[in-house]
Structures are given as C-alpha cells and as structure tokens.
Specification:
- The structure is a single chain.
- The protein has about 450 residues and is α+β, with helices and mostly antiparallel strands.
- The chain has a domain of about 130 residues.
- About 10% of the residues lie in helices and about 30% in strands.
- The chain contains six helices and 24 strands.
- The strands form seven sheets. It has a four-stranded antiparallel beta sheet with strand order 5-6-7-8, with no helix packed on it. A four-stranded antiparallel beta sheet has the order 9-10-11-12, with no helix packed on it.
- A hairpin with a 2-residue loop joins strand 3 and strand 4.
- It is globular and about 130 Å long.
Length: about 450
C-alpha cells in the first residue's frame, strides 16, 4: 500500500453512495481541536487533531471490513494520540471523551435516545411496517376524534335500505288505506301487497292459493289490522295484514265482484256486503262470517237482485244506506225496521234513477248535522246523503241531499217509490271541465 507524506492510507470499499466516515481524534487537556478535511491530515501541526460533527443517523447498509478496522493516524514526538475506537454499526459516532463502556451502553439504548424528527423518520424506515408511538399515541390506531366522526356515518348507513323491484299490473280498484293512514293496500292478481306510506317500501305480501285471482278486498270494520280478500274460486279469506297470518276462510260458492264491510248494529262483529254474480243475475248479499267457536252463527241474507251488471257498491251508516251503480243507473236502498238488528230482519226500500251517459265512477257521503241552533233541526239528520257521479263525457253530477229529493218527487207525483226517475227531476249540479271520462271521485272526510 502506497504511503503519502509518511502516512499509510487504507483502501476503503464503498457501499452505494455512502461517503467515507470522518474520524475523530482526541488530545490531552489544554490542546485545541480543529476540524479539517481528511485529505489534509498529513499537513497538520503537531498536537493538533481533527474532530467531525455528529452525523445524523440514517438507514445505511452494514459497514464494510474497512470500516471495522481502525485508521492509523500520524503521531508526533511531543504528543501521543490514542488509537480511535471502532465505528458504531448502528449509525452513531462516539465522541472522543466517551469511554468504551459508555459507548456500549449507548448502543443498547440508541432507540430510546432518538430525539430529533430525522431520527424518528430513520427508525420508521428501518422497521418499515411497524407502528411508532409518538407522545403516547399509536399512529396506526384512529384517534378518539376520528372514532366520534365515524359513529354518525354508521348510524346513517343503517337507516338506508334498498327495496326490491316493484311494479306490475294492479287491480282496477281504489287503493285502501289503513285506519292511521300509515299503510297502503294494493292488490295484484295473485297477491295483496302492503306498502308503508312514509318510505314507499313493501312490508307485507298476502298470496292467494292455486290458480285463483283476487277480485276484491276490504279492511275489517271491527279489527283494523285484518282484511277480507275475495277470489275467483268463490273463497273469502280473512288475513291479519300486519303479520301475514290467516284468520279465517269461507267457501261461499259464488264469484264476489265487490266487497264492503261495516260494523253490525248492536254487536262487535263485521257484516260483509258482497256483490255476487251467478249466470245473468247480479245480487247483493249480506254475510255474517264467523270463525272459531262462532262458526255456526255464520249467516246470509239477500237484500236485492237485478239484471243490470253492478259496477260498484258503497255501504254507509252501519248498513242503513246502500248505494250501487250499473252502467247507466244508480240504485239507492234504505233499510227499514231499524230496531231489528238481526241479519235475517234486514229489509230495504230501493230507488233507482237513470243517466244519459255511461257512469264511470261514483261516491256518496252522509252530511254531518248542522250545529246552528237557529236553523230548524231535521228529524233524522243522518239521512242527508250527498252523491257525486262521474260519467264518460267528463261530467260530474252532484246531488245534494238526494233522499229528500226522492221524497219530494214521490209526494208530488203520488207514485210508488219503486218507479224509476230521471236525473233532471233531481236537479243536480253539473260540473264539467274534464276532457276525458272521470276515472275516480271521492268526498273528503269532512264532506267539503
């Protein structure tokens, strides 16, 4: 190995781009230290030694053999320089005044003595995927603030739901609302579906068995959580639409086209008014359907029969008034002998009037009694029946207190009550602003 100025030089093996480490020389007390470059070490004056600033520890490869060997330094006659210690493999340089024993302790506690930001980054790079605790918090774990922010998001996610695809062909009947108007009942040919009005989601399905098809349905007047369903097999089924369970089933042997349900007078039971077809005849029957121990009390009473196809029925005042429509006529029945509440004692007086245009829809309403004491009170205010009819020409005919009009006409003409009258003699109000046939018409609950 060649010598320069009498000082031997060692050949170092360079790993990557790591620069050659600077060595620190120590001298006895009273002497000064000057930092010089390695290339000028041979020109230093006697008693002057070099010292290098502490290097920031970085992630470096393992030291080469040349790093482990001590570098010989020139000595003068005046001063004897102690041999420098080996470089630390963990990237820290010992100071000249630190004993060998302290340097060994420092090597064990290197990780605990990291203080600067550069030292922390170097430790993170060495462990790669290991979390480092800073000020007592783990970087991999979310802070308390982040946890609090995630909680409301999770709650919102639980409130959302995706419903299945809905649609299809529904029966051409008016929708039926529950008593609290929180649910809507709509019928398809094979199932009666219950929807929540707040969310529009399907909450229940009530199927019919076999090849039967639903024809009509109506909610119970006594149990609002139950519904009657009539199908083409001549069967009426009573369902609990809230939990999807069957309550009763009756085979009446007739096709039920329309249903309406009222509470039986002086009893806590349902009465079903059913429009049934058989051959060319159309009849309206009253059914007292019972289940369980009262099944033997099931009754049937026919209240009218006609050759005209009935297109709809409506029952008011617990069966006191029945309104039915056909293609071009309206049939109104009023029950007599009100003191008799047995189904077999139900008797009606019927009045009918014809229209010039085809009837597409109708709806009737019993007007509330007047509260003004100055007006003359009616003998029976519940009989004040208002009727609205929509026809195929787009006209709405409004008949106010139609029962009183019937009585006045019959009294003046001294005719029988069964004679068919014309709508002109009843003097209806004519409302016409529709371009097409009236599809549906309903009175509001307050009758306004």
């Amino acid at each position: 190995m060649a010598e320069l100025n009498g000082m031997p030089k060692l050949k170092r093996k360079r790993n990557g781009a790591e620069p050659q480490r600077k060595k620190v020389k120590t001298e006895p007390e009273g002497s000064k230290t000057v930092a010089t470059s390695p290339g000028k070490q041979g020109k230093k004056a006697a008693g002057v030694e070099t010292s290098a600033p502490l290097a920031v520890p970085t992630a470096t490869p393992s030291p080469s053999k040349a790093d482990k060997e001590p570098t010989p330094t020139p000595t003068s006659k005046k001063d004897a320089t102690p041999t420098p210690q080996k470089s630390q493999s963990n990237g820290t340089d010992p100071t000249a005044s630190t004993p060998s024993k302290k340097r060994k302790d420092k090597k064990r506690d290197t990780r605990a003595e990291l203080q600067t930001h550069a030292e922390i980054e170097s430790a993170v790079a060495q462990v790669n995927s290991t979390a480092v605790a800073v000020n007592g918090e783990n970087l991999d774990r979310p802070s308390k603030k982040e946890k609090k922010q995630k909680k409301p998001k999770d709650k919102l996610a639980d409130e959302w739901a995706i419903s299945g695809i809905q649609g299809g062909w529904f029966l051409p009947q008016d929708p039926v609302f529950s008593s609290d108007e929180k649910y809507l009942l709509l019928a398809k040919p094979k199932t009666l579906e219950v929807f929540a009005t707040e969310t529009s989601l399907l909450v229940q399905e009530l199927p019919v068995g076999g090849s039967a098809v639903i024809l009509s349905y109506c909610i119970s007047a006594v149990q609002p959580d139950q519904v009657y369903i009539a199908d083409t097999a001549g069967i009426i089924t009573l369902w609990n639409w809230t939990n999807g369970s069957k309550v009763g089933r009756w085979h009446i042997g007739a096709t039920v086209r329309h249903l309406d349900v009222v509470k039986q007078p002086d009893a806590d039971q349902d009465l079903l008014y059913a429009h049934e077809t058989g051959g060319k005849n159309h009849v309206i029957n009253v059914h007292a359907l019972r289940t369980g121990a009262q099944a033997s009390k099931t009754e049937l009473k026919r209240i009218t029969k006609t050759n005209n196809p009935i297109t709809g029925i409506q029952v008011l005042l617990q069966g006191k008034i029945v309104v039915a429509s056909s293609a071009k006529s309206i049939l109104i029945g009023k029950r007599t002998k009100l003191h008799k509440t047995a189904v077999q004692d139900f008797e009606y007086i019927w009045r009918e009037f014809e229209t010039s245009s085809r009837i597409t829809t109708f709806n009737s309403h019993v007007r509330l009694p007047d509260t003004d004491k100055s007006k003359k009170s009616q003998p029976d205010p519940r009989d004040r029946l208002d009727l609205a009819i929509g026809d195929s020409d787009g006209v709405i005919h409004l008949f106010e207190d139609i029962l009183s009009s019937f009585a006045a006409i019959e009294k003046s003409q001294k005719t029988k009550a069964s004679k068919i009258l014309g709508p002109e003699s009843l003097r209806p109000k004519r409302l016409h602003w529709h371009r097409e046939a009236v599809g549906a018409i309903k009175w509001s609950l307050d009758g306004v």
